[in-house]
Specification:
The chain is of the alpha/beta class. It has a domain of 146 residues. It is built from 15 helices and 11 strands. The protein has a 9-stranded mixed β-sheet with strand order 4-1-2-3-7-6-5-8-11, sandwiched between helices. The relative contact order is 0.12.
Amino acid sequence: MTSTFHFDSYELKEDRQTIAFFYHLQLEDATHNFVETLQLHAPIPVSYSQKLLKNYLLSLHLALGISYWKLTCSNSVLVHSGELSDQQAEFWNTTYGIGLGEFYYKNQIDFRAIKPFIGTHVAQSFASNTQPKPEKYLIGIGGGKDSLVTLEVMKQHALPFDSFIVDSGFLFSHPLHTVSEHLQSQLYVNRHLDPSLFQLNSLGTYYNGHIPVSMIFAFIGTFVASAFGYSAFVVSNEASSNEGNVQYLGFEINHQWSKSTTFEKLFQQYLTTFGEQTSRYFSFLRPLNDLQISALFSQMTQYHAVSTSCNQAFRITNTTTPVRWCKSCAKCVFTYLMMKPFLTPDQRNTLFDGSFPIERNSDLIAQLRGEKDTKPFDCVGTPEEVVQAMRLANHQTLSSTEVLSYGEESLIPTPLREIVREAHKQAISIIQKATL
């Protein structure tokens, strides 16, 4: 289908906390208009750099637009809201390319020639960001164990922070809003997608599928951190997210691409294209793997009755009654296998809202163990972690020490590295005790 996708404009409303992003998809015989809005927790300070504001809003315009562009995957794109340098265009072509790898794989689209963004070849005028930032962090909270581990480790070391939640209008508000009751201070951004997107998706005549949503959260969170005076937006992406799922057209397709080290580096480099600091965004848990994070979370019992890692709880549209754990998806099964070695039966019942029917999920377990052709397209760890977790649950010694290793830390600011290393040592101690 012949089409052109337009990134029309964005508008910061008079209240300085409502931002609207406008798009339209031009087909041969129809036009579809879209508006997406972000509602911030407070007005953007008038003192905030206008150049930084302009660059962040243009970036958000492109980041949010991926949901609407993918309806037709048009190579014909017009960005009316600003100009891109060659380096910025390369970032967006990568994001709209391999960043949508799972989407292309499942829709059997050859994406190798899809490069819709063109640089202007005009040098960017860098925004000056000279205002000193206090060492106060903004921690992204997703409702699951990873971000809560980051929060608790920072709290244990008396690091100053606020928590941050993006609410996209989930049907089941329990994961975010109930967890938020346990947080000492939190900022919200309410994200409202255009409802016509879901109407078009339901027709079955347009492409639909997974998008790199952590990329969107990275832009929203980093913008809020920058505008409201935080030293960094901190996420909780672990080492395990670097492993892909399947090969397609000569590329490794990774469901967790926008959680990977590759994306983290690309994103930090992108920030420098308009004068922002690379340290404004980083993953606190990057050196740790899922098993180690699970060991740490097992000790944080105050969150066990309210947290969830199940994607069903975070759906915007659904035909079933939302629950905290569906107990039949790859993420539920994986989380259960990771947590089982470190919890008593009663503690498992608290975490998973009752007994977990693990025996009916044998096919998923085989996939998670790497015994099938394709690793599940979900935010799950490596087959090695699953194998070793199941050994621990049976009080067997580890057959490999790979899951005990400490990974890459180069993107974590130097003052925080020793804290992460201490958390790793604590996790290893918990894992070793599980074999006794």
